[in-house]
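We give the chain.
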Amino acid sequence: MLGTYALSAGYYDAYYLKAQKVRTLIRRDFEEVFHECDVVITPTAPTPAFKLGEKTEDPLQMYLSDIFTISCNLAGIPGLSLPCGFNKEGLPIGLQILGGFLKEETIIRVAYTYEQSTDWHKKRPEVI
């Protein structure tokens, strides 16, 4: 409802149009990157996973924990996250694989190859 109101209340140029321009710039940046490489590998989150129930009272921290996964959604490219280790406290760390437009098969193959050469996907964190 709020989005519909904003678009109909004369804010189209101020918000929606500006957001679409930024999205186009992000998409172009990824297009340039994928001329040089097949995938981009990043952390899934800026920190390891947090303990169950931790940070539920802090919506900003919850939002920031997803910040690295937003770029693929904005650019409209496929992304996949898989386990890649644990920190000293035993909390899981995620690896994110981003691929070019319509390159889902490529990121799945990279993830499969990673899983075949490691055993992180078989391990479970201790209950904390």
